[in-house]
Amino acid sequence: MPLHIVWQTVADGDESLLAVPLLDAELRLTMVGEIITDASWHVGGELTKALPSQAARVQSYLLNPMQTELHVNLLSQGSAYANAVWSALLAIPVGQAETYSALAEKLGSGPRAVAGACRNNPYAGIIPCHRVVAKHGIGGFMGQADGEFVALKHRLLEYERGLALAGE
After folding, report:
1. pLDDT for 27-39, tens place per residue?
2. Which SS3 state, helix, strand or coil, does residue 38 take?
């Protein structure tokens, strides 16, 4: 099932935070009204138990992206190049990964530019930058070359590989 993104140019209203627990981590969605303005992973600390409906929909999609449809409003951010990279990330199928250099070749750029766009992805939990890996290893995640976020990247990739193998 697909992810449907409606890009918004303006976000007005009160800001709120929604927490979506997943794989011993938490995806924190910053909302302005119904528009997501940031989606960042957090590792460690106490995880949220009760989920508001929007967080539950996002969690359901992340747990079962091949069987769940998700409609989200995201605030349009980043350069034209970053947006091209993020669009390319959305085309990488669940359970698969692509190297920074292969993605860069498709975009006519360099792997470091792709890595920079991934690092600056404001929607890391929704636009799957974790599906981009280094030629010789997993590469970084959320601005870290190793540590808890790279461990989370491993968990996300393994979880999605399992879903793809199960045919879900």
Report:
1. 999 999 889 999 9
2. strand
